[in-house]
Design a protein that fits this description.
- There is one protein chain.
- This protein has one domain.
- It has four helices and no strands.
- The chain is an all-alpha fold and 83 residues long.
């Protein structure tokens, strides 16, 4: 799966589950935490989704903003896990 496909899947998940179909001009580099899109519970939902959708295992030490705080970060992180 290419980065572009990962971004589309992640964007759709965020919009459907946290923005309730209002993309609010969600950009690939928008910080989920800084913009209040996702809270700590939401991060756990995102991690569970990524585990299932992309068949990856995310370790506790990987639960950091650099990996999970924007569409770009998530896409890069998932791509790295898939290799």
């Amino acid at each position: 799966m290419m980065d572009v496909e990962i971004k589309v899947v992640v964007r759709n998940f965020i919009i459907e589950n946290f923005l309730f179909d209002d993309d609010g001009s969600l950009k690939d580099d928008t910080s989920f935490l800084d913009e209040g899109i996702i809270d700590s519970t939401g991060i756990l939902e995102l991690v569970e989704f990524l585990d299932e959708e992309f068949s990856i295992t995310i370790e506790d030490e990987e639960l950091i903003p650099e990996n999970l705080d924007s569409i770009n970060n998530v896409s890069k992180f998932v791509s790295g896990k898939k290799k």
